[in-house]
Design brief:
globular; single chain; alpha+beta; UPF0301 protein NCTC7911_02650; VC0467-like; AlgH-like; ten-stranded mixed beta sheet
Length: about 220
């Protein structure tokens, strides 16, 4: 993606473009649809089963922020990048506190890795923002960055890129026992150490992955 394709690009050699406007007609991002005919996994975690065939996800914990009959999308929440949140703020000519400089941005997924999305607590009160679950929102507009810059957003993840599933793809992968599913919680989403998150999700399901016998993806 060229930097000029998003409203908050960095007009240098294209390093990272943060917080693009989400085009509702964009085929990469599923739209809401009738959710009555299947289990909705919005505000759930996906964790890989021991049989996960895609090595990119063998130790990933994914937060599903939208799921419908048109597909699903979410973010890996345990893959910190070498880039800090403060460093990305500086690239956008915004001030950054020491806390922001010490907070890593997350590798959210392999689609649009140059684009940023902020998962945070609170209300969807920004220019481009929507609620995922109780007290959890996704914001993609630049106005949220002023709160991050001023340490006024207590719980957040800045994810670069996202994960996407087409219609029926996630359900098929779960039925093939690639993924396990558990309800999301704020402790794991915002406060747990990144390196502990997969095991905490297994513990939440009462599963020892070393002794796990495949039966079903839903728990």
């Amino acid at each position: 993606m060229n930097c000029d394709d998003v409203p908050f690009a960095i007009h240098k050699p294209c390093k990272m473009a943060i917080l693009p406007h989400i085009d509702p007609n964009d085929n990469d991002i599923p739209k809401r649809a009738d959710l009555k005919k299947f289990s909705n996994l919005t505000h759930h975690f996906l964790l890989p089963s021991p049989s996960m065939p895609d090595e990119r996800f063998t130790d990933a914990l994914i937060y599903i922020c939208r799921h419908s009959t048109d597909g699903a999308w979410g973010f890996m929440i345990n893959k910190p990048l070498n880039a800090s949140v403060g460093g990305l703020l500086h690239e956008l000519d915004l001030p950054a506190s020491q806390k922001a400089m010490n907070t890593p941005a997350m590798h959210g997924g392999f689609i649009r890795p140059e684009a940023g999305f902020v998962i945070h607590t609170g209300l969807p009160e920004f220019a481009s923002s929507f609620a995922v679950g109780e007290n959890v929102c996704i914001t993609t507009s630049k106005d949220v960055l002023s709160l991050i810059s001023g340490d006024s957003l207590p719980h957040f993840l800045l994810c670069m890129g996202f994960c996407n599933w087409t219609a029926g793809q996630l359900e098929r992968e779960i039925s093939e026992q690639d993924w396990l599913v558990c309800p999301a919680d704020l402790e794991m989403l915002f406060r747990a150490k990144f390196e502990d998150r997969v095991m905490l999700a297994y513990d939440k399901l009462g599963i020892n992955p070393d002794k796990f016998t495949l039966a079903t993806g839903f728990a």
